[in-house]
Specification:
2 copies of one chain form a homodimer. Chain A is an alpha/beta fold and about 270 residues long. Chain A contains 9 helices and 11 strands. In chain A, α8 packs across α9. The radius of gyration of chain A is 22 Å and the shape is elongated.
Chain lengths: ~270, ~270
């Protein structure tokens, strides 16, 4: 088996996630939005470079937004804090970070009105202040329709970064991601694709794996963890190259492990 | 029912969490360590102010560590990246952030040796380079024994902050937290305690709740989300005060909601 070649291709699509919500910092809620989004973005060929979680606090949201933009990711995706109550302040925080005015967005108002008209066709729903709050956008912001909830999402272009603010409710965040965001990421990534494989290792101690993994990994970028389950991942310009690199690295490590007396099996 | 009084007491114990691991950014692994730690810290009366997730990358770990220390939390708890393989680089990242030298820590070597002697009493285990890597600490670091795994954790005092670096394996992180960290947080918090209650609301639309919540929340700090389930939380100097404030705020909101025709029930 020849040495696997260095085929890792740095994708040009870096994404930061910013999760907003006290419930995440109180430990009441596990941040499944972040892992769901990260998995989707990874599959599309993008790279999630950092995930930050902050409370429902104007200053913290604003600071974290500014810090993230300073790292110049292609996308900044926030979740949470775009509902009607006083503690929903993501739009306000983004505005503060960018010194933008908050304005009632007509298109967003129309979306909210339509949502209520559809959901409660026989009721007259008045657009109260909390409902209009959901349509109060940083100037320049574009509303994205929420196919399964009330609050429209926000899209805002800032220098090098596209900001997307999604709701915190997972079904809503997921629906809007699929409808309005995944294509954006796909087109930014271009033809780069992501591939991964798992390998189970038995009959060898964790720390004995370390030199083997080090040796193989110098031949291929990726992540391998000494947890008896090894994970191989790659982003490459096309699926043929990705597969070749993965298969090469895996064969190599399987050979080295078998020299150590370990048994390996692929995890489907 | 009288207005609930402003009894929220800012605890002096702020904690930042730094999660290290490619698997979290690839979306393969949900960050349950962060939510488990956040829940424990909250119960102890501490406040988790931010959670940051970075990849297994020296520069990123170092940057995130420096940024977190700049916010001067009482505690910075990292998880992940302290094992034997090349991609475990939390100790190196912390050293880089603080311009500290890495040194072989004798006490940590002893812990690792004991771990192997206990786990494999009949085998002669040599302390290979990857195994010694787990004992290579930033100078000034104190090893904390890992009751369920190999890699010792690290404790390091830096100006205003106590840094704790825990393993990424949840059972190990949890065991070390309970054995070596929870008492530290408890003693820092002093007598402040945390209490919370949940309330289920039926028969009223989400956005109709907003004004009611806003009104009650100006009388009490906490978090209330318009998800039909409302969450009330408070940190107070003692449990009597915490209970009074919670009961006051809940009675108040129940009354206001009943005026709107909503039905409420406590979630045990």
């Amino acid at each position: 088996m020849s040495e696997p070649q260095r085929r890792f291709c740095k994708t040009p699509c870096e994404v930061e996630l910013l999760s907003v919500g006290n419930e995440l910092l109180l430990g009441n809620t596990i941040n499944t939005n972040a892992s769901w989004l990260a998995a989707q973005i990874t599959i599309l060929g993008g790279t999630v470079t950092r995930i930050t979680t902050v409370p429902d606090n104007l200053v913290e949201i604003s600071k974290a937004t500014r810090e993230a933009l300073g790292r110049k990711p292609q996308f900044l995706i926030t979740t949470g804090g775009i509902g009607p109550t006083f503690d929903d302040m993501t739009f306000k925080g983004v505005s503060k970070a960018l010194h933008l005015r908050l304005r009632l967005n007509r298109e967003a108002v129309r979306m909210i009105r339509n949502h209520y008209a559809k959901r409660f066709p026989k009721m007259k729903i008045s657009l109260t202040a909390p409902r209009l709050k959901m349509a109060t956008f940083p100037s320049g912001g574009i509303p994205l329709s929420n196919p399964v909830g009330t609050a429209p999402a926000l899209r805002l272009h800032v220098r090098r970064t596209e900001i997307f603010c999604l709701p915190g409710v997972p079904t809503e965040a997921e629906a809007i991601f699929k409808e309005s965001l995944s294509n954006e990421i796909r087109s930014r990534v271009g033809t780069s694709i992501f591939a991964e494989r798992w390998l189970r290792v038995r009959g060898v101690m964790e720390s004995s794996l370390a030199p083997v993994i080090d040796r193989t990994m110098t031949g291929m970028e990726g992540s391998g963890r000494p947890r008896i389950e090894l994970h191989f991942s790659i982003s490459a310009p096309n699926s043929k190259r990705a597969k070749e690199a993965l298969v090469g690295a895996m064969s190599d490590i399987v050979n080295r492990l078998s020299d150590l007396g370990a048994k390996t099996s692929r995890i489907p």
